[in-house]
Queue: 3 jobs
Job 1
Amino acid sequence: MITIGILALQGAFAEHQTRLQNLRLKHKITAPLVKTPEDLQRCDALIIPGGESTTIALLARLSGLLEPLKEFIRVKPVWGTCAGAILLSQSVTNAKKDGQELLGGIDVDIARNGWGSQVESFEAPLDVNGLSDPSVPFTGIFIRAPVVLGLSTDAPIRIIARLPPHLLPEPIDDPNDPRTIVALRQGLHLLTTFHPELTQDDRFHDYFARHLCDCGGRRTLSCFATSTN
Ligand code: GLN
């Protein structure tokens, strides 16, 4: 049994739990909510949901989770969606004026609310490298989504989905512009700037669980870091 915790301080944690519960028999996983350092200690991997990154960081500090989360990220796989992606990033622009505490783990610079405010939220069909049924696009739901501004590392980063240039909220000519990146992996971690948990499509959660479970529950971390799709 592999325990994939979901950080449940604020945001769309219940939706992530629903998606993972649909996969619990297939991948032999449990998906508990994480609200305390003790909850976190029981996890093999973690999802940090979307919501509001400043609030999640503040609540993590108040619950004594900030340092345990940073330590967890050093050794175990973490998937950050939207606000969670911001928290996993190395640096953020457009932070609230009181600043933004980050957990780090993925060497990208990211812009909070990079495509604009709530009314600029949008959906886009995405081709995602490594999902099951690759011919069926995955619906990316972008809500006050962050935008990857650049990669701040020479370490290998695997880009697994980009927004097609013609679907970008603002025109970008270069298809390799980092702002088109909406899903990527680095080392143990996965980052998506959109909300897979808000669809009825379990394939992204299947992708995460599959890469953890391939190792039979023993060396879950190296499995995710070295697998090829
Ligand atoms: N803009 C939000 C933030 O700063 C993230 C939005 C989301 O998670 N949907 O945290």
Job 2
Amino acid sequence: RRVSTNEWRKTVADPQVCVVVGGASGIGAATAAVLAAAGHRVVVADLDADGVTTAIVTGGGSGIGAALVRALVAEGAYVVCADLDLDAASSVAAAAVGPGTAVARRVDVTSAAEVRAAVDDVVADHGRIDLMFNNAGISLLGDTEDLTLDQWNAIIDVNLRGVVHGVHAVYPQMIAQGGGHIVNTASMGGLMAAGLLTSYVMTKHAVVGLSLALRTEAASRHVGVTVVCPAAVDTPILDKGELGPVRGRDYFLKGQGIKRPVDPDHLARKVLAAVAANRAMVVEPVQARIAWRLGR
Ligand code: NAD
């Protein structure tokens, strides 16, 4: 089983215990078996201690986050489906099918304390946090002159501070445990500009910058960082054009030169593949990026 750093310190300090590092397979496993047969107390220490990857997905109650929860459970992970909306998170967690487990938790990412408590509980129960998906986000579509200061602050709180809270809570823990991976959901709007989305684009550019900068220094600590920059994805956020008469779905599809929004489950599979390959960025679909670059 996975153990906490403190428990590990006590274990290796115990003169009665034999510790076999790399003991889950091959020569290490054979060594552990011989020692155990000889009557020694043996602790098998291995990266693959129990085979269960632990993950937290914020905004897991809907859209891309829900798809990430489904994909992770299908891969056998233990996943905390964290969302402001506990009912939505519970439905997603209950419906996820696979060898893994999903548990719902109400987490408001604008609260550093709530994000930290979710991370601390996973570490207390499982010894480590392998994957952190800072995915929760809101959009604000409309004329910038109509934005109130409260709206500017609200989108900064969720889309930017929410990601900072996640990074701040997991990064030192991941360094201490010897590795992990942080995935931040930005947007195509984090790579390019789009009118009527000024505040959203600002937060997403910041998330891209945070992610790419962190990635360069985290690599030497065995922590991977991936930033996800999708064009329009088929989720409820597309219909949340809170401001002005412009309907989000039409605006996004036309602006990005794509006929159909991306399927969230397809995107989630791409994201997990990018994590496995430790890629810096996921941009999906490629034709949207090209169209946007050409200024269509
Ligand atoms: P969605 O609206 O379907 O899901 C967002 C989820 O985040 C909801 O369940 C909501 O309850 C939750 N949430 C909102 N505020 C929260 C808070 N303070 N704390 C915790 N949870 C909170 O939207 P989605 O499309 O799945 O969006 C997920 C992420 O993907 C967002 O960061 C969004 O900006 C980004 N994104 C979406 C698209 C798209 O077209 N759908 C494109 C690019 C980027």
Job 3
Amino acid sequence: MSFPNDFLWGVSTSAFQIEGDIQNDFTEWERLGLFKKSDKEILYNNGIEHWKNWKTDFEFINQIGANSYRFSIEWARIFPGPDKIDYSAILQYEKMIDFLLENNIEPMLTLHHFSNPIWLHEISPWDESSVIQSFCKFSRLIVDKFIDKINLWATFNEPVVWALAAYAAGKFPPAKAKLSQTMDVLYNMMQAHVCIYDYIKAKRPEAQVGIAKHFIVFKESNTFSLFDKGLVNRVNTYFNKIFLDAFKKNELSFHFPPLISYKKKIELNDKIDFWGINYYYRLHVKFRFSIKAPIYIYFKKQQTDMGWEIYPKGLKEIIRLVKPTGKDIYITENGIATQDDILRTKYIYDHVKVVKKELSKGAKIKGYFYWSLFDNYEWLEGKEKRFGLVFVDYQNGNLRKLKSSGKDYKRIIDVVTKM
Ligand code: BGC
């Protein structure tokens, strides 16, 4: 079996990473000098000014030959205050969505992609259940407005990654540093997911609602070490399997004493239509006899500008992990930060080949989205790391230029579909 005719060949972005002209918890953190950065100064500096340039930006989707676009709506833009709505922002998003539809580009809308309104952490932070109401209020507004235009909804982008960065590693706002707290955060995110799932389905039963989940292949550093193997099992259970299990068992649980011991009922009732797979790399895991730092997780080979290992075979492992859920699968993100565009083309080609193979083995994969359409603001890394199919010249008024890999994307699709 080859790619079905309705397969989505997409490109992915998130609002904050490109839009500019935003005030959210990230810009506030930057203003207050609260980011724990390395030596370099990382400035958001208006993203890539997509809010201003969206129309010409969207022409690139046509040029690349993609038929789908995954993007997010910035909560902080819509709700500058807990009870204050900016309707003009909703209007602009509507124009953007209409443009996509007029150009036969299927939109996939993400409701939460890492950033939050500034007020949220004070009024209803993610580790308190009041956040469910706040997030549902925002989401319902978006659903009311766009339910007739949007069929594909991703409630959350990488909840585990976000919870770890914001509540365990102290890197994203609100920069808490307690691993066990991530469980409460994940619990609330999943409750919020259900709230929006029900709301969307009641309005448009055929709409598809999922979660874009980061998956990583973890490999023991020493294949003969039982300690390394045990550790891989724990890390894999937490990072990759926690939700797959929770949606089946109606229970969010994870045990890794003394760090975490958590078990709580949660009525998820399998309320998810698709799993979005965000896949980038493999990591190695080593157990160390050290009380201070017993877990060592690292890249064995550093092959991209992010220092990540390129491991296309891992995508097969992840697809096979998700397949038994019986849900549809979208590869919602897959990409590489590099200045070497030939390498980027090869990266895409190698991963798309895996998708094709798994499709032929019966996996219900409905689409592939390259991350990212543009070079953009890469969270704690700033703008040096270039994931885009379109180059952004930060020195020259953010001028855009299609990269050779952007031209190759369509060719890859043609070659792989005909193979
Ligand atoms: C995130 C993106 C990010 C990308 C590359 C994913 O984890 O969803 O926002 O830019 O990876 O690091």
